[in-house]
Design brief:
There is one protein chain. It contains nine helices and 20 strands. Strand 5 and strand 6 form a beta hairpin. Strands 1, 3, 4, 5 and 6 form a five-stranded antiparallel sheet that branches.
Length: 467
């Protein structure tokens, strides 16, 4: 912008000269002078507009400590970080990470307070972020310069700005020794809750003790750990503490909360007492030392008749060993011998079973190939409509008659004539054949025996009976 003003000052005499020529010169000269003046004015206007558009917005950072007078060890010190711009914020600024030796730091939770302020005669819009710091040691602590990055509206690139470094001194509250845990709060609530598994308590049951500590104006991570110690005759099982911040429901910080829980299992009968717990703290509102406490918890544990503790393997083996006598040892040895014999005889039994199955299958196959089997099929085939004679032919063949039906008697010949003659009378012939089946079977048996006595076959075949 300064360069544009310098150029305008340098061109001013030339503009005045052209204006004089317009007044004093001829008409053509006046027209040329007017054109030159118009072009020069347009050029100056473009330069001024471009310079105004090219101006980058500003980014400024300021820091403040609250309170500013005194800081106690265990108390909360608020570091206010104000980020300003003469334009507007298109996105939330990028805040730095703050770590301090000898102090706990809780970074901003994302909520910001909108503020307006005039700096060097210009109006700035800003956002205020709060870092909460709790000193652990009584000493001086330095806060380094903090770099904030943001991209305000009309900015061509990301801008950055730094705050001024700060320093504060933390002092030990009265009544606390150096190195002793210190809790500084505006108000404090310390309560307990006792939960019994059953009533009355017996051997093997459990009791749970829950301590809740709420401190106004204190960080949750800075709250001290109450002492839940061991008690003889009880087994202690602590749980992880539940630590959280307290707010007013609108995101504004109010304080911290810590919940500690421990469960005690009763190992032996008797009377027990969980000791009282005291907590010393500094009241920032009255500037004095106070003590909060919870009372002791007393209870009795009786013997549980239904309770059976975990048994000892050694005692069980000794007790059972005394009960085992020689009689039982002999019975056990006999069972072992029987089991071994059964194990070794399994292959023999299996082979015998397979052999018996093979013999049964062979006998059944021979039965199906015998003349007696064919003979038993004849009555059912004669009952069919039309009657069948295949079983009769098969029986004749297996009875060594070679299908010579003439050897089967006049009844069979009469059946054939009745079935295939000029005047069929099949029903009567079948009826007569059924009546003479027993006689026919006996006749064939006698013929086979006489043939066997007359001439023995060259390859004798032993006759087998099938049942």
């Amino acid at each position: 912008m300064n360069r544009v003003m310098a150029i305008a000052s340098w061109l001013a005499p030339t503009v005045d000269l052209r204006c004089t020529q317009i007044k004093c010169g001829s008409e053509p000269a006046r027209d040329r002078a007017r054109s030159f003046t118009t072009i020069l004015g347009t050029l100056l206007l473009c330069l001024i507009t471009t310079a105004a558009l090219a101006t980058e917005p500003e980014l400024r950072v300021q820091t403040h400590l609250q309170p500013t007078d005194s800081v106690m060890v265990g108390g909360v010190l608020e570091l206010q970080l104000d980020v300003f711009t003469d334009s507007w914020f298109t996105d939330a600024p990028t805040l730095p990470e703050l770590k301090l030796s000898g102090a706990l730091v809780m970074p901003p939770d994302g909520h910001a307070e909108h503020i307006n302020q005039k700096l060097d005669g210009k109006s700035f819009n800003g956002m205020r972020y709060s870092f909460r710091i709790t000193p652990n040691l009584a000493r001086g602590i330095d806060i380094p310069a903090l770099t904030v990055r943001a991209t305000p509206g009309q900015a061509t690139t990301e801008l950055s700005a730094q705050s001024q470094p700060l320093h504060f001194i933390a002092t030990q509250p009265p009544g606390f020794k150096p190195g002793e845990p210190v809790l500084v709060a505006q108000g404090l609530r310390f309560t307990q809750k006792v939960i019994k598994s059953v009533t009355p308590l017996k051997l093997g049951d459990s009791i749970t003790r829950q301590l809740t500590l709420q401190a106004d104006g204190a960080l949750a991570m800075s709250l001290p750990t109450p002492l839940l110690g061991d008690v003889a005759g009880l087994s202690r099982y602590p749980k992880s503490p539940w630590i959280s911040s307290l707010d007013d429901g609108r995101g504004h910080f109010n304080g911290g909360q810590r919940i500690d829980t421990a469960t005690y299992r009763i190992d032996t009968e008797g009377q027990y007492s969980l000791p009282a717990i005291e907590l010393k703290w500094w009241d920032a509102s009255t500037q004095q030392t106070r003590t909060a406490h919870v009372p002791a918890v007393t209870f009795d544990a009786v013997v549980n008749s239904t309770y059976r503790p975990v048994f000892s393997i050694t005692e069980e083996l000794e007790r059972h060993g005394q009960q085992i006598s020689g009689h039982w040892l002999g019975l056990l040895a006999l069972l072992v011998i029987v089991a071994l014999l059964a194990w070794f005889s399994c292959p023999l039994v299996h082979r015998a079973y397979l052999g018996g199955q093979a013999r049964r299958r062979a006998r059944h196959a021979m039965w199906l190939e015998s003349a007696e089997y064919a003979w038993r099929q004849i009555p059912s085939q004669l009952e069919d409509r039309p009657a069948q004679l295949s079983a009769l032919y098969l029986w004749a063949k297996r009875s060594r008659n070679d299908l010579k039906l003439t050897n089967l008697g006049p009844r069979v010949q009469g059946l054939l004539c009745a079935c295939y003659g000029r005047k069929p009378s099949e029903d009567q012939a079948l009826h007569r054949l059924k009546e003479s089946l027993t006689e026919l079977h006996s006749q064939v048996e006698r013929n086979n025996e006489s043939a066997a006595l007359a001439l023995r076959p060259l390859n004798p075949v032993h006759k087998k009976e099938f049942r």
